From TrEMBL:
Domain of life: Bacteria
InterPro entries: Glyco_trans_1, Glyco_trans_4
Organism: Sphingomonas colocasiae
Record bears the keyword Ion transport: no
Signal peptide boundaries: none
Protein name listed in UniProt: Glycosyltransferase family 4 protein
Short name of one Pfam family: Glyco_trans_4_3
Start and end residues of each Glycosyl transferase family domain: 25-192, 211-382
Keyword GTP-binding tagged: no
Keywords: Transferase
């Protein structure tokens, strides 16, 4: 079988699926917009945009304009591949940036399967969830979201089926396409992601911690309101006052992954740090930026309590990784976290904006080693049973791909 993967930042969510198909003998080609070192037996084609996003048009159309520019670049790469004789049976694409928009024009007989990460809505999800950062007038937001979803709508008629990592993310998509989405998580390698007994961790050549230390961890790709960074920081003064031996380690960059950017010249990290810095002992709060994956696992291994907060939005891999590492987790009671954690069984859930509940829940777990151990053990059991890459997720992903090739459903 010939398979084409399309993802702006390949491999992205296809980091395991693409090499697995190549390893079983399929001819796999990948297409993206950024540099990629490559996988064995996978040809990578980098598409290059030849246009710039218009700045003099309506601001609502700029996002779609960018998608068309990327789609055009991918279209031209696809034409060259077709000229070389490559004919995919299946195209598997993340449509979020637009690259796959015109590929069925090049290969009309190929079955297109799309990764359904999120369908934007003015109600019931991230938009206007946080009153501190309003998205504007509700009616205006609905108009903007309609335009933002144009790429999704244009894919629905072309795609044979979709795949989504959580039920809640799939539920954000409208019918009739929602019924064509299969729920399969990206998967976590729980053979690798597991507790590390006796670990000692040294970060940034200065922080050394072990299991015997009281360590509160907070991890985001980037530190921003969408992942509750502001809520966590505002909890620190009281939390550190009541736990004089606790150390807080915060992982994440200063860029923006989701939502609005901070005021020009500032970062969300510094905005909320400055808000509380005169109330906390900064020698006990360590920002370590983005760290290598093995260090990230080591940090989870020494975590006494791990905090994960999110708007109703896409689920972070880091939450499932923390579960697989047997962390004692305090998380927000927002979807899709509610699918992964049952309150009191696999972790403790608190209302996203309830700072006092967050503080009390963290302190309660810090005071109760037996409960931490039980929650961590239960969390790992669920991670292995429902999110393990090798035994659960990857076989289901491959089955989905084979179903696309066979009949498109």
């Amino acid at each position: 079988m010939n398979v084409l993967f399309v993802h702006q930042n390949f491999p992205g969510q296809f980091r395991s699926l693409a090499p697995a198909l190549a390893a079983r003998g399929d001819t796999v080609v990948a297409m993206g917009m950024n540099d990629f070192a490559g996988f064995p037996n996978i040809r990578y084609v980098r598409s290059k945009a030849t246009h710039n996003t218009a700045t003099n048009g309506h601001p609502w159309t700029r996002d779609f304009d960018s998608k068309v520019i990327r789609a055009d670049a991918s279209f031209r790469s696809a034409m060259k591949l077709r000229e070389e004789g490559f004919m995919p049976d299946v195209i598997i694409a993340h449509p979020g940036w637009g690259e796959s928009l015109f590929l069925k024009t090049v290969w009309p007989d190929a079955k297109l399967g799309i990764y359904c990460e999120f369908f934007y809505s003015a109600d019931g999800a991230d938009m206007n969830f946080d009153a501190e950062f309003p998205s504007g007038d509700r009616d205006e937001s609905a108009c903007r979201m309609l335009i933002k979803n144009v790429g999704n709508f244009l894919h629905f008629d072309q795609a044979a089926a979709g795949i989504a990592p959580t039920h809640w993310q799939a539920s954000s998509f409208p019918e009739p396409f929602r019924s064509r989405i299969r729920i399969v998580h990206d998967g976590i390698d729980t053979d690798r992601v597991k507790s590390i007994p006796g670990v000692k961790l040294k970060l940034n050549d200065q922080i050394e911690v072990g299991r015997e230390d009281e360590v509160i961890t907070f991890v985001n790709r980037n530190l921003e309101p969408y992942r509750g960074y502001h809520v966590f920081m505002r909890a620190l003064p009281e939390l550190l006052r009541r736990r004089p031996n606790a150390r807080v380690i915060i992982v994440g960059g200063d860029e923006v992954s989701y939502g609005a950017p901070p005021p020009k010249g500032k970062s969300w990290r510094n905005i909320f740090l400055q808000e509380v810095s005169d109330q906390i002992d900064m020698s006990r709060v360590n920002f370590v930026g983005k760290i290598p994956y093995q260090q990230f696992l080591g940090l989870l291994a020494v975590s006494t309590v791990h905090v994960y907060l999110t708007y109703p939005f896409v689920l972070s891999w880091s939450l499932i990784e923390a579960m697989a590492m047997e962390c004692a987790i305090v998380a927000s009671d927002t979807p899709p976290v509610l699918e992964a954690i049952d309150d009191g069984e696999h972790g403790v859930l608190v209302p996203f904006f309830d700072r006092d509940a967050l503080i009390e829940s963290v302190i309660s777990l810090l005071d109760d080693p037996a409960r931490r151990a039980q929650l961590g053990a239960n969390a790992r059991k669920r991670a292995v049973a429902e999110y393990d890459l090798r035994s659960v997720c990857l076989p289901r992903q491959i089955e989905w791909v084979d179903g696309l090739a066979a009949g498109g459903g």
